[in-house]
Sequence to fold (293 residues):
Amino acid sequence: MTAIQTRPRPAPRSAAPNRIWDAGPLTKVVLAFALVLSAFPIYYMFIMATRTNDEALDTPPPLLPGGTLGENVERLLAADDAYFATGLINSAIVATTVTVSVVLISTLAGFAFAKLKFRGSKIMLGLILVTMMVPLQQMGIVPLYEMMVTLGWTGQIQAVILPFLVNGFGVFMMTQYTTQAVPDELVEAARVDGASTMRIYVSVVLPAVRPGMAVLALLTFMQNWNEFMWPSIVLNPENPVVQTSIAALNQAHGTDYVMLFTGTAASVLPLFIVFIAFGRQIVGGLMEGAVKA
Fold:
């Protein structure tokens, strides 16, 4: 009898290394250098917020925290020509309101465009894409300002909120994310079980698109928190947002470097808090997209 030759079985896929390659020493050095270059200006800004003006002009400059942070914050809030506390409160109200509105409307519209069939959906989505290509804020400043004057809203924060409650980018982003994150079979199964459209949106769509909502919320909050041009046109100096407060602070106290550093640090701190709050969802969304790809 002839011996039966058998081929050796290939190693299972699980035995293969999980990573293609490990980062070498040069890669780690370059990444560390890039991290230092990116983080050092922010670190130096917070360091200067704890120093005096004399210490800020020292050579070499101080690189460790000082002990005058409380005094600098008191001087910042007491500056009558900047209204910094009012600017912080107004920016928090504007950014939070706009973020909630944009995320809610964009998620609803994304669900409708991605999973519901209705006449004219492609045309409507195309018109939304057109709004992303045209700089409406710059081109529409004059008619938008006339509208605010007609409504009697100049100098009030609703004039900064109303024009940004809907965002074409948010609708497009959530449409694409819903298309990929929510299978059609899952929607059809829920509909067969008797779920209404709103029930499908709440119970099926929202849990699946939560990472995308977190990313959109972070981007929207940052954009509206950092908005300067439109608030500087429609608001008055007594009722500013934080960016116009910093501009007024620069005009009135241009040589008080420590106060400028303190104001800038105070304006950046809420962005760090928002990023920390949504960071887990953002990373989860990126990892989910990488696994699907």
Summary: The chain has one domain: 76-292. The domain at 76-292 is CATH 1.10.3720.10 (MetI-like fold). The radius of gyration is 26 Å.
